[in-house]
Amino acid sequence: MTIPSVDVAIIGGGIAGSSLAIVLQRDGLSTAVIEREPAFRDRVRGEACHPWGVKELYELGLESFVFEAGGQRIPNWTQYRDRDVDSTFAWEEAFPGIYPEIGFSHPALQERLLRGATEAGAIVHRPARASIARQRDSWLLQIDGPDGVYDLQARYLIAADGKTSATRKLWGCETVIDPPHHQFGGLLVKNLNLDPTSSHQGFHTAGFLMIFPQGNDLWRVYYVGPDNPTEAFGGSDRIGTYLKACAACFPEDAFANATPSGPLAFFPNSHVSATRIAGEMAVAIGDAAGAPDPSQGHGMSLLWRDVRVLRDLLRTESWQDVAVSFAVTRRSYETILRTHAAWVAPLTTNVSEAGLALQAQVELARADDPEALGYASIFALGPDSQPTDDDARAQFFGEHKAEHPIRIDTPLDKID
Ligand SMILES: Cc1cc2nc3c(=O)[nH]c(=O)nc-3n(C[C@H](O)[C@H](O)[C@H](O)COP(=O)(O)OP(=O)(O)OC[C@H]3O[C@@H](n4cnc5c(N)ncnc54)[C@H](O)[C@@H]3O)c2cc1C
Question: Which atom of ligand 1 is nearest to 128's Cα?
Answer without folding.
Answer: 43
